[in-house]
Amino acid sequence: MARIRSIHPGLWTDEAFATLSMAARVLIMGIWNHADDGGGFEWKPLTLKMRIFPADNVDVSALLEELSSSNLVLEYSEDGKRFGAVRNFGKWQRAQKPDRFCPMPPEVREYAGTVHVLSKEERKKNDTATGSEATEAVENSDQSRTSTVPVADFENRREEGRKVRKEEGNTSLTSFESERAQNPKSEKPKRACRLPADWQPSPEMAQFARSNGVDPEQTAAVFRDYWLGVPDPKGRKTDWNATWRNWVRREDGMRTPTLSSKAQQRADNAEAWKSGVMLEGY
After folding, report:
1. For the chain, which terminus, N or C, has the lower number of CB atoms within 10 Å?
2. Helices H / strands E in the chain, number of each
3. What string of pLDDT tens digits covers the 282 residues of the chain?
């Protein structure tokens, strides 16, 4: 699988790269794309020819020998197969999640500069070994702790520490948490509404009350007495103009609502029906 690689600007003035033929220069850059994150690739001239020079008549075997003689690549065998490694590949190519699919002995990894790049099997082995060491360390720490401090004593000491913090006063607790610690059944204190004691409706709000048949001064006195005594648990900022409008519209017992003529007639007829007398127009 081909990968995106980076090209350092200093490559073009490198002596080893500058002495190569034009086709060998293209080949080494193509090998970067098709090598794994460890700088390893399969030494298959025909496959490399189809991947890098699909439309050119070049001898990739000769180009690989040219790269090898310039010490830019190293041919090696592993498990009866031929592989190649790019020199200092890890110095110039930094993969985000490096992985390798070509087996590579330690000395070749140093040649490629990718000793830190591991295959999936190697990572699994390291994770298993690390997990065993971590488990053993946890067990040893548990044994050392339980051998010196019994579990019951440890719990008692923790409870005693809580009592000491309560008695001495824990500055990290809020006033409500401190009160809750001393009295678990206490409720969260409510914050009162922020209506000023001398609140008065604005001229526009007073006119709105008059247009609804409500005395603004008398209504404002009842309005203040009511809202000053109502707590606001969430401490929200109240829009008092909107509250005043709703108060006036509901009328809240400030005046007796007048019914329309039809509504009044229906009410009278309902009373007459109960008394057995039928009124006109029912």
Report:
1. N
2. 13, 5
3. 678 898 989 889 989 899 999 999 999 999 999 999 999 999 999 999 999 999 999 999 999 999 999 999 999 999 899 999 999 998 888 888 888 889 999 999 999 999 888 888 888 888 777 666 555 654 554 444 443 344 445 455 555 555 545 555 554 455 555 555 666 555 555 545 567 777 788 888 888 888 888 888 888 888 777 777 665 555 556 677 888 788 788 754 444 444 455 566 666 766 666 666 555 544
Residues 6 or more apart whose Cβ sits within 8 Å of residue 182: 166
Q: How far is CA 1 from CA 31, 34, 37, 61, 139, in A?
A: 11, 6, 11, 21, 44
Are the CB atoms for 253 and 247 separated by under 8 Å?
Answer: no
Which DSSP symbol is given to 84? E
For the entire predicted model, the pTM comes to 0.45
DSSP 52-80: H-TTS---HHHHHHHHHHTTSEEEEEETT
Question: CB of 111 within 8 A of CB of 85?
Answer: yes
Laid out side by side, the sheet with 40-42 consists of 40-42, 81-86, 73-78
Q: Which residues lie closer than 8 Å to 151 by C-beta, 6 or more apart?
A: none
